[in-house]
Amino acid sequence: FNTLRETQFALASIYFVIFILIGAFILINLVVAVVVTNLESAIAEQDELDLQQMQEEKGNQDDKDELHTYDLRNVLIKKFWKHQKPIEVPNLPALNPHKVQNYMILVTALEDNYSEMLFLNEELNKIAKEVWEWNSPVDEEAEVPLTTPIIKPP
Predict the structure, then answer these.
(1) Which of 40, 54, 63, 116 registers the highest number of CB atoms within 10 A of its CB?
(2) Separation between Cα atoms, residue 87 and residue 82, nearest integer Å
(3) 126, 134 contact by CB (below 8 A)
(4) Residue 103 burial by CB count (10 A; 0-12/13-18/19+): exposed, middle or buried?
């Protein structure tokens, strides 16, 4: 009879510990879920207020101008950046044709340099292979080992 009580006590204590741990886990999950939900709703509300403020500012500008123009930043925010916004919104209206032309020249120069680097890499590998052949012992049956490229392209 004594061992039955000890067994029941052990099982009851294990049940109690498991019940407390699971209950605490569920309660913490509920608290975290409420905090995250409130944070998301606060962010969405702030985004709506910012958007309304931008639209009011734009509306004031539209009253002055007869032509209706769209602000690219607002269009991007409304249509494309709903769920994940970039760290910094690009200032596209400040991008003038002169800057675009400079960027294109830079990209073209980078492409030319990369193609020249690949050509020089091939030439250096040919030279390294010839040097390896000259320095290796003369054995007709031995194969020339493949060398690793001197410059590895990225």
Answers:
(1) 54
(2) 13
(3) no
(4) exposed
Q: 54 near 76, Cβ under 8 Å?
A: no
How does pLDDT run along the chain (154 residues), one tens digit per residue?
578 888 888 899 999 999 999 999 999 999 999 999 999 989 888 888 888 888 887 766 655 555 555 566 666 666 666 666 666 666 667 778 888 888 889 889 999 999 999 999 999 999 988 888 888 766 555 555 555 555 555 5
In one-letter notation, the amino acid at residue 144 is V
User: In whole angstroms, what is the distance from residue 5 CA to residue 72 CA?
Assistant: 76
DSSP 22-64: HHHHHHHHHHHHHHHHHHHHHHHHHHHHHHHHHHHHHHHHHHH
Cα angle value 17/22/28 (rounded, 5°): 125
Do you know the residue count of the chain?
A: 154
- Residue 85 CB: number of other CB atoms within 10 A? 13
| Single pTM value for the model | 0.33
